Amino acid sequence: MKGKRLGLRKWLGLKLFKGLYDTAVEQHELRTLFWECTLRCNLRCRHCGSDCRVDVEEQDMPLADFLRVLDEEVTPNTDPSRVLIIFSGGEVLVRPDLETAGHEVTRRGYKWGMVTNGMALTRERLYSLVNAGLRSVSVSFDGFEDAHNHIRQNRLSFERARDAIRHIRSVEGLAYDVITCVTPAMIDRLEEWKEFLISEGIERWRIFSIFPAGRAANDPTLHLTTEQYRRLMEFVRTTRREGRIKLNYACEGFLGGYEAEVRDHFYMCTAGVSVASIRVNGDISGCTSVRANYTQGNIYRDRFWDVWQNRFKPFRDREWTKKDECEACKVWEFCRGGGMHLRDEEGKLMYCHYNMLK
Asked: What digits encode the pLDDT tens for the residues 111-131?
């Protein structure tokens, strides 16, 4: 299967979007703030990039420390109603004070959501979180029972995730999406999986592919081949055209001719541009998927807002990525070296989506 060409019309569209990208970088308005509230987890997933574990040595960040940053740094400099706070982990539901955290950020005028594997999201816990102001949930659901449980390494994981999604769907007004990390084991079953999700009443679906980092770095059974990746793009494009379920491919990287056909917008890495994170140890970075060596500061020694306004140069000025395979790339002005989460400790690109699709 050959790649999809980047036609003239799309090229012109990307040129126009480039101006919007430049403006967003210049303004760097904070719109999403991830709080990595814990690294503890109730699963040990094969593809985990943060290598979360149950007996994690890093302690949970005290809620008071995060609220101090909101009160002293974020709230005085933003409109809280325009900033979404996302609780992430690890697995956020291992924190017994999540409801307290939710109440506190809601009281300050912020909307908040969470990312979960669903293992501990009972109906009672969900309603408790909704009462604490929960506005959005993303749940990992990686395929049929055999495939999902293989990745999550727990025989109850599929059942618990399915039940969690059913509970979420019963709450009127609660935004949600289902996230599927597509592996070779699922590539031939995507049509069947799509029909299953539709039969469950799921309306919003997001797809990722797994890149070679964390536990997935040395597990080739999780990585799509070039041919499989192209098939995935065709599946996403076709599904979107059908309109029976709202499907988006994740913000993983620049996709050449598939741009604006497999997600709702042209590619843009928003890490450090409109997205920041406070890690469990206080580190300040872009999204939580970005490696620790791109940390820009720490809330225990730096002022968060000063870091947000005056640092983040590696995220906002991507000229440094023009090396190796990116040096002579004809689409660099649109891709800007790929997602920050795809850069290793030396700054080398681990995975190029565009090359997979040529």
From this structure: 999 999 999 999 999 999 999
* Residue appearing with tokens 């005085």: 76
Point out the least confidently predicted range of 106-110, 167-171, 177-181, 216-220.
216-220
Q: What is the pTM of this model?
A: 0.94
> What's the pLDDT score for residue 53?
44
71-74 CB contacts, 8 Å cutoff, 24+ apart = 71/108, 73/303, 73/304, 73/305, 74/30, 74/33, 74/304, 74/305
| Residue 286 near residue 303, CB atoms below 8 Å | no
For the record, the structure tokens of 128 come out as 């408790």
CA dist 55 and 335 (Å) reads 38
**Cα–Cα distance between 237 and 202 in angstroms, integer?**
18
Which of 107, 115, 109 lies closest to 35 in space, CA to CA? 115
The predicted-structure confidence for 30-49, as pLDDT tens digits, reads as follows 999 999 999 999 988 888 76
Tell me how crowded residue 153 is: count the other CB atoms within 10 A of its CB. 12
Strands 246-249 and 204-209: parallel
Quote the CA–CA distance of 156 and 145 in Å, as a whole number. Answer: 9
**Structure confidence at residue 96 (pLDDT):** 96
Residue 51: Cβ within 10 Å count: 13
Helix H or strand E encompassing 96:
none
Nearest to 261 by CA among 12, 23, 6: 6
With vertex at residue 287, the alpha carbon angle to CA 126 and CA 46, rounded to the nearest 5 degrees, is 70
CA distances in angstroms from 91 to 63, 75, 110, 119, 208, listed in the order given: 16, 26, 21, 9, 19
The CA distance from 149 to 142, in Å, is: 9
Structure tokens at 109: 């005028």
d(CA 355, CA 357): 5
Q: How many whole angstroms separate alpha carbon 142 and alpha carbon 116?
A: 13
Q: What does the alpha-carbon distance between residue 348 and residue 140 come to, in Å, rounded to a whole number?
A: 28
